[in-house]
Amino acid sequence: MSEVIYNVDRSLVREKAKRVKIIMFDLDGTLTKAASMWQYVHEELGVWEKAKTYKEWYFQGKIDYDEWARLDTGLWKGITYEAFMKIIDRIPFVDGLKETVSELKKKGYMLVVITGGLDIIKDRLYEIGFDYVVGNTLVIKDGIITGDIIVKVRFDEKDGILENFARKHGYTLSNCAAVGDGLNDIRVFKKVELAISFNPESEEVAKNSHVVIKGDSIKPILEVL
Fold first, then answer.
1. Could you read off the pLDDT of 170-213 as tens digits, one per residue?
2. For 88-111, what is each residue's pLDDT tens digit?
3. Cα dihedral 16/207/152/107 (nearest 10)
4. Predicted TM-score (pTM) of this structure
5. Is 131 designated active site?
6. Is position 123 annotated as part of the catalytic site?
7. 9, 28, 185, 216: the active-site residue
8. Quick check: 156 pLDDT over 90?
9. Which of 54, 66, 133, 179 could form a disulfide with 122 if both were Cys (CB 3.0 to 4.6 A apart)?
């Protein structure tokens, strides 16, 4: 059972939707049932307690995002790519994703995924129908995770990446919608034409959205766009 909550008048949402050409989606917790791909892997490998300390250091301002990412992926050093992907492949997408993407593509939208998480499942996303996926890339050498990472999306950089993508296609952020669930989506929510939170992780995320969707399926987004 899903619930769609409008924080602004529905007629205004309809008007905003008419201007949207590009829809940006968060990945972790929005397109995946796992709230955090990082945490999912940490828990599977038994290193979550250590990783929680790194997370606390970042939010306390003790380390920057790049260092946080390197410390996190350093916990995976030496694991084979094959073993790692067996974990990643167990992460399910949210209900209704394929059907929703198909319908949005039929309506002519460009669909992008911008994540502060890992881009390691980008091939699965392209197969579903997304046009562009950007995230952080694990460094793998000779089939082994090195513990290093190429940081492409920091915590508060989604808006700039989306703006650059839109500009390349002749649009601006006023032609974009954003769908996400986390604190790192708020900045882009404030700049796009239409902000949709899907199972927001906090009230702060919800209140910065034009529309809030709660439930197991992402299909209700088709009511909005």
1. 999 999 999 999 999 999 999 999 999 999 999 999 999 999 99
2. 999 999 999 999 999 999 999 999
3. -30
4. 0.94
5. no
6. no
7. 28
8. no
9. 133
Give CA–CA dist 13/5, Å, rounded.
12
For the record, the structure tokens of 114 come out as 């911008």
Give the list of residues 6+ apart from residue 205 with CB closer than 8 angstroms, or none: 180, 181, 182, 183, 185, 186, 189, 197
All residues at 6 or more sequence positions from 154 whose CB lies less than 8 Å from its CB, including other chains: 65, 66, 116
The CATH homologous superfamily of the domain defined by 3-34+93-224: HAD superfamily/HAD-like (3.40.50.1000)
Q: Residue holding tokens 């394929």?
A: 98
Q: Evaluate if residue 34 carries a pLDDT over 90.
A: yes
Question: Are 198 and 180 in contact, with CB atoms under 8 Å apart?
Answer: yes
Q: Which string of b and e fits 128-158 if b means at least 16 CB within 10 Å?
A: bebbbbbbbebeeeeebbebebebebbbebb
